Amino acid sequence: MKLAIVGFGLIGSSLARAAQRAYGASLNITAIDPSQDVLTYAQETGLCHQGSTSVLDIPKDCDWVILAAPVAASLALLDTVIKTVGPNTMLSDVGSTKALIVDALNHRHPKFERFIPAHPMAGREVSGPKHGLATLFDNKLVILTPARATVDAVTKAAESFYQKLGARTLRIDDASEHDRLMGYASHLPHLLAFAFVNLAARGNNGTTDYQDLTGGGYRDFTRIAASDPTMWRDIFLGNKDNIVAQLDAFSSILTTYREAILSDNDNSLTELMREAQSERLRLKQIIKGQDK
Amino acid sequence: MKLAIVGFGLIGSSLARAAQRAYGASLNITAIDPSQDVLTYAQETGLCHQGSTSVLDIPKDCDWVILAAPVAASLALLDTVIKTVGPNTMLSDVGSTKALIVDALNHRHPKFERFIPAHPMAGREVSGPKHGLATLFDNKLVILTPARATVDAVTKAAESFYQKLGARTLRIDDASEHDRLMGYASHLPHLLAFAFVNLAARGNNGTTDYQDLTGGGYRDFTRIAASDPTMWRDIFLGNKDNIVAQLDAFSSILTTYREAILSDNDNSLTELMREAQSERLRLKQIIKGQDK
Question: Is the pLDDT of residue A146 over 60?
Fold first, then answer.
């Protein structure tokens, strides 16, 4: 197995670690990253066999090339990487939004059969190759959203590859539907957590009381606001239409709460919360099965 | 030690369990609850020595009477309880908002010296006496907000009492400031989590994809939306002014995000998230010390 990973951050280095665990000594990894420090780290820790700052150095005989840079960077590299790879190399990416990459493939490479866009639903609130984990994908979902030209054999090979790294796979043929669903499941909650911590920071400058008053609910609610701003900027801009629409729908629900509170409308308030509570309890049953 | 607990739900029964752990065989507990089923449960499981549906049955020789019903119910019982207790009994409550109870004491009982309002920052997303825990208050903060007439000896006795149950105590003299800070630290995040789950429920009726797509971020972010709607209705209405003001400030931050996303304003978006990220990382240091 010969693997090239383009973008050797948290996800890229975790792919390298998980692949080493899965393929052992037969594996050869090329790390591509704009940072010489990152490449030095990858080589000194044995996470790659060779490294380069340029995608032009991707070996022609790679089995897989995985674009693991932030979405905008991966999109910018797409054309060059497709021109560079050998005739049997398969490609994938790990972006959290999928419509942009699928559109780029459909329009700019309508006949390229060997790119299978993927979204591993795995991450941490810390960034960089030092924080990568061999276990990052274990039992996590990797969603595959084939482009129009992607052949089935490549999608199936990707299923095997990501499963071998420990993940479960799910195919969603419509990349826009993927992005809409991920708006609810991930992007909007992150946006709200970021915005809430902005508010809390501004409303409580320097008071120690506030810090000491944060309970478990606050901690869980805001944990995701420590995530990497650059990655999330790309996600928010890359899923703009869904996020703005969902944000508007959310604001309208907030207005309902606001009015119920202002007018002391007990029943309306309780009913709203009961709807949320029962949805959350329903989800809990499903979630239970997924948590380790 | 003779203790009466008014409202024998999650918090009330946890107080009983923690007091049994702390005081052992010398403890005598009276449970007051409107539900006969709850009282039967409390008696059969040995959580109380005697029970009644009426606060008029609170023994005159109690050392402590703790109002552990939802805020509105505790407020409604306040006058009767103060009239009923013996001359040496001390009183406290466990409400999550404190301005209402302190105002009620200041205006309706301006000379009553033995009521010390308290807010134990402890809870679970499940309700009822069966889910109470002896360990619920361990290392948790109990905030004390004395009324104007509360004498210092009673505040000090409350500090000893709650500390003996496992908690740390913090005195905040201004109950309104307590409520404002708790808006940020707890009430608003709960409101946002409820509203977000409302949105997700409506946007994805019956799709299984959505359920399977929820990652760890979603789970943490929405966990608190499973909390008891009745309790939260009382909190939202009892802290109305702060919550509406904070909600409006939050909505204005959301608008900033929305505009940055719509206009592809990379810098503004990244800057907003960096502010949130650094605040969250700063808090993490403090939070670390508090988590078990």
Answer: yes
Closest CA to B250 of A280, A260, A222, A241: A222
Measured distance CA(B254)–CA(A250) in Å, rounded: 10
Quote the Cα angle for A48-A53-A58, to 5°: 65
Sequence-ordered strand ranges (E) for A114-207: 115-116, 118-120, 141-144, 168-171
Is A266 close to B201, i.e. CB distance below 8 A?
no
The yes-or-no verdict on residue A288 having pLDDT over 60 is: no
How many CA atoms does the CB half-sphere of A292 hold within 13 Å? 8
Q: Is any Cβ of chain B less than 8 angstroms from the Cβ of A283? A: yes
Whether A112 contacts A151, CB under 8 Å: no
Nearest to B57 by CA among B76, B39, B44, B75: B39
In angstroms, rounded to a whole number, what is the distance separating the alpha carbons of residues A148 and B112?
77
Tell me, rounded to whole angstroms, the distance of Cα B31 from its chain centroid.
20
Residue length of chain B: 292
Task: Report which DSSP code applies to A129.
Answer: G
| A56-76 mean pLDDT | 96
Query: CB-based contact (8 Å) between A153 and chain B?
Result: no
Which tens digits make up the pLDDT trace of A76-97? 999 999 999 999 999 999 999 9
Q: Residue A261: which of B210, B237, B291 has the nearest Cβ?
A: B237
Q: What are the chain B neighbours of A70 within 8 Å (beta carbons)?
A: none
* pLDDT at position B124: 81
- Report yes or no: B22 at the A interface, CB cutoff 8 Å: no
Cross-chain Cβ contact B277/A226 below 8 Å: yes
- pLDDT over 50 at A290, yes or no: no
Q: Does A137 touch chain B (CB under 8 A)?
A: no
Three-state SS at A181? helix
* ipTM of the complex as predicted: 0.81
pTM for this entry = 0.81
- Predicted pLDDT of residue A181: 87
Q: Find residues 211-250 of chain A whose CB sits inside 8 Å of chain B.
A: 211-215, 217-230, 232-233, 236-237, 240, 243-244, 246-250
